[in-house]
Amino acid sequence: MSIHKMIALHPNVGDDFNEMLATAARHAMFCAEMCTSCADACVAEPMDMTQCIRSCLDCADICAATARLGVRRTGQNIEVLRLMLESCARVCDLCAEECARHEHGHCRLCAEMCRECASDCRTALPTVQ
Predict the structure, then answer these.
(1) 46-to-22, 40, 96, 100, 108 alpha-carbon distances in Å
(2) Domains along the chain?
(3) Structure letter (DSSP) for residue 9
(4) Cα 58 to Cα 75: distance, rounded to the nearest angstrom
(5) Quick count: other Cβ atoms within 10 Å of Cβ 50?
(6) Residue 88: left (phi > 0), alpha (psi -120 to 50), or beta?
(7) pLDDT, tens digit (0-9, with 9 covering 90-100), for 69-108
(8) Buried b or exposed e, range 70-101, using 16+ CB within 10 angstroms
(9) Its pTM surpasses 0.85
(10) 25-38 pLDDT per residue, tens
(11) pLDDT surpassing 80 at residue 20
(12) What's the distance, CA 121 to chain centroid?
């Protein structure tokens, strides 16, 4: 199953399919789940992971909201979508920085996903007009 196919089937899309935005929305969905999972794993770690948990949960919320806005094609709210893509990229950067401070495998994987999501959001940004 593909969100790209779902967006392409929207009656308002036609020839106006935005591949980069669809990819950013897809990765933001994945990133939200990865960050949530990392936060949960951080809870189980024996040391204080409070800041990492907070960073991951904040990032998960922003990514989930960005993904939801990114798949909508009825009407337009370009300014809000652009702000969300910019915010998502920055919050992902911050979460990646926090996760990179830790040696846990789940944190390294989360940081990698956050970097990918940030890159995809920045790539999609100029295509949203």
Answers:
(1) 39, 13, 21, 18, 17
(2) 19-127 (1.20.1270.360)
(3) T
(4) 28
(5) 10
(6) alpha
(7) 998 888 889 999 999 999 999 999 999 999 999 999 999 9
(8) bbebeeeeeeebeebbeebbebbbebbebbee
(9) yes
(10) 999 999 999 999 99
(11) yes
(12) 8
Q: What is the pLDDT of residue 14?
A: 75
- Contacts for 96 with CB less than 8 Å, ≥ 6 apart: 110, 111, 112, 114, 115, 118
Our CA angle for 22, 23, 26, nearest 5°, is: 85
Closest CA relative to residue 10, chosen from 62, 70, 88:
70
Residue carrying the six token digits 């204080």: 48
